[in-house]
């Protein structure tokens, strides 16, 4: 295995132990965060008739939920930095359950947008980011494998929730199903309880505030009425105020590191992913409705999502093992680019499937490609920015990506409503993802070349500085030796002259 990237966490991650329990909890949280919006599409046909809306309007429910999940990333990152992953995930689980229970009493599509899209979506945001962040704190060498296993929770949940939703709908209706789903989502609180804090428990040093300084000065004044405030005390008060302003900026930058927008690799990743998400979620949202449009029964249409989820379930940990190998991990960005382009190629070929057999084959390849992308989605980001800056990177990436996530499914729904055919939606998504994969491949090649060039320049600079230091040391030693010789010369010669004079004087006396 290739050597892991340097980490400045301040401790050595255990790479196992309780970390596997954390991976299990993360798989539950990540599973609900990713699979629930997809499994929710089972209710689209019924909700469209109940509220008398179009496909594009009902698609906004999933879009708002996904956009809120990603858009709440910065808030989630700030809360994780402030309180830790465990309380944030537990609170997120409560929001998810409350949102779905309230959705059971909705009487309009707008209320559904708020309850399912905003409330439950924000609860999923508080589940997704902390689960991904805490894996980076428990794992370093085995991090790709741990991420792959945690991401495998999404297909496991999808393969379970898709048939379960259809069963609940047939027996309890959509209102009863939403009420039961709200109770099921409370299991996120149990998953969050497994996130035991880890790391250096160093409390921040509390600096004195202005009020404390003024109180101290007042006490000193009361002790001795003769003493007056010195200029030093006044300057210390103004200095404390500057320090407070500086501390506020430092705390904000600590929660969200905006200097990442100057990071070349981060910008490449961000642009490629923003483009990718225009076509990432729409195909899976409309897969079951597309099957029903072709005349396939409801259970068989829901089973397509289960097939996709089963293949996805195998693909994610397998991709994590491959990505952790010594051949792939040093160039993992290329593997990620290939996965995105492969995903887009599957969507371009989907319109060729006009029967159930063709849709099953499409679901198999789509599940493989989808699992490959999801397994490396956060691992590649951590590979670029490092574990210490990953929390801020996730928050910044998700809030930018939420715009395209919000627009993707409604654009697909608009194409379906306009042309009355699903193939244009699949072609649009496939073309966008192939373009995103190509862009990432080219730009990552450029990034790797630039990193290698910068590394060579750094080594050359170090060698030059080392040579200059060696020459300077030799020169300084020579100057010291010459200086000592010049200082020794005048001292030796007078001593020699004095000895010769004494010798002559003694010889003269002996002659006399």
UniProtKB/TrEMBL annotation:
Q: Name one Pfam family in it.
A: MFS_1
Q: What reaction gets catalysed by this protein?
A: 4-methyl-2-oxopentanoate(out) + H(+)(out) = 4-methyl-2-oxopentanoate(in) + H(+)(in); 3-methyl-2-oxobutanoate(out) + H(+)(out) = 3-methyl-2-oxobutanoate(in) + H(+)(in)
Residues covered by the Major facilitator superfamily (MFS) profile domain: 19-448
Domain of life, per UniProt, equals: Eukaryota
Q: Which InterPro entries match?
A: MCT, MFS, MFS_dom, MFS_trans_sf, Proton-linked_MCT
Membrane-spanning segments: 18-37, 49-71, 91-124, 145-164, 176-198, 266-287, 299-315, 335-354, 360-378, 390-412, 424-446
Question: Which residue windows does the record flag with biased composition (Basic and acidic residues)?
Answer: 496-512
Its subcellular locations are: Basolateral cell membrane
Region annotation (Disordered) maps to: 479-512
Its main subcellular localisation, reduced to a broad class, is membrane
Keywords from the named record: Cell membrane, Membrane, Symport, Transmembrane, Transmembrane helix, Transport
Per UniProt, what is the membrane topology?
Multi-pass membrane protein
Cellular-component GO terms for this entry: basolateral plasma membrane
Tell me one GO molecular function of this protein: symporter activity
| UniProt record similarity statement | Belongs to the major facilitator superfamily. Monocarboxylate porter (TC 2.A.1.13) family.
Q: What is this protein called?
A: Major facilitator superfamily (MFS) profile domain-containing protein
The organism named in the record is: Chrysemys picta bellii
GN (gene name)? LOC101950129
């Amino acid at each position: 295995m290739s050597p892991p990237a340097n980490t400045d966490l301040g401790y050595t991650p255990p790479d196992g132990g309780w970390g596997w329990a954390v991976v299990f909890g993360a798989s539950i949280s990540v599973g609900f965060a990713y699979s629930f919006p997809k499994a929710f599409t089972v209710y689209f046909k019924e909700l469209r008739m109940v509220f008398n809306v179009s496909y594009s309007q009902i698609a906004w429910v999933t879009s708002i939920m996904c956009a809120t999940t990603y858009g709440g990333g910065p808030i989630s990152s700030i809360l994780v930095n402030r309180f830790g992953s465990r309380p944030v995930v537990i609170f997120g689980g409560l929001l998810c359950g409350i949102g779905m229970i309230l959705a059971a009493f909705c009487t309009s599509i707008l209320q559904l947008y708020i309850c399912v899209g905003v409330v439950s979506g924000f609860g999923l945001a508080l589940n997704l980011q902390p689960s991904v962040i805490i894996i980076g704190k428990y794992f370093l060498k085995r991090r790709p494998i741990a991420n792959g296993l945690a991401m495998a929770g999404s297909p496991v949940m999808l393969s379970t929730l898709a048939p379960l939703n259809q069963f609940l709908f047939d027996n309890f209706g959509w209102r009863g199903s939403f009420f039961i789903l709200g109770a099921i989502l409370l299991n996120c609180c149990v998953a969050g309880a497994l996130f035991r804090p880890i790391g250096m428990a160093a409390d921040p040093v509390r600096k004195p505030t202005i009020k404390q300084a003024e109180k101290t000065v007042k006490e000193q004044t009361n002790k001795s009425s003769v003493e007056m405030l010195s200029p030093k005390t006044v300057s210390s008060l103004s200095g404390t105020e500057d320090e407070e302003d500086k501390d506020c900026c430092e705390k904000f930058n600590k929660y969200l590191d905006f200097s990442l927008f100057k990071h070349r690799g981060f910008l490449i990743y961000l642009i490629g992913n923003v483009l990718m998400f225009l076509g990432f979620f729409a195909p899976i949202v409309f897969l079951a409705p597309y099957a029903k449009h072709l005349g396939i029964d409801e259970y068989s249409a829901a089973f397509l999502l289960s097939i996709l989820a089963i293949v996805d379930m195998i693909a994610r940990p397998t991709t994590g093992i491959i990505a952790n190998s010594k051949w792939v991990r040093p160039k993992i960005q290329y593997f990620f680019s290939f996965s995105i382009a492969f995903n887009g190629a599957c969507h371009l070929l989907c319109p060729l499937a006009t029967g159930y057999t063709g849709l099953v084959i499409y679901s198999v390849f789509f599940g493989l490609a989808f699992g490959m992308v999801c397994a490396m989605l956060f691992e590649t980001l951590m590979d670029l920015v490092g574990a210490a800056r990953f929390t801020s990177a996730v928050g910044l990436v998700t809030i930018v990506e939420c715009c395209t996530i919000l627009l993707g499914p409604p654009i697909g729904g608009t194409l379906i409503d306009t042309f009355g055919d699903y193939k244009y939606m699949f072609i649009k998504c496939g073309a966008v993802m192939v373009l995103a994969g190509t862009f990432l491949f080219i730009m990552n090649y450029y990034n790797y070349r630039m990193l290698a060039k910068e590394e060579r320049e750094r080594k050359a600079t170090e060698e030059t500085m080392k040579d200059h230091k060696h020459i300077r040391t030799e020169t300084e030693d020579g100057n010291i030796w010459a200086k000592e010789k010049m200082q020794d010369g005048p001292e030796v010669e007078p001593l020699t002259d004095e000895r010769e004079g004494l010798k002559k004087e003694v010889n003269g006396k002996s002659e006399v």
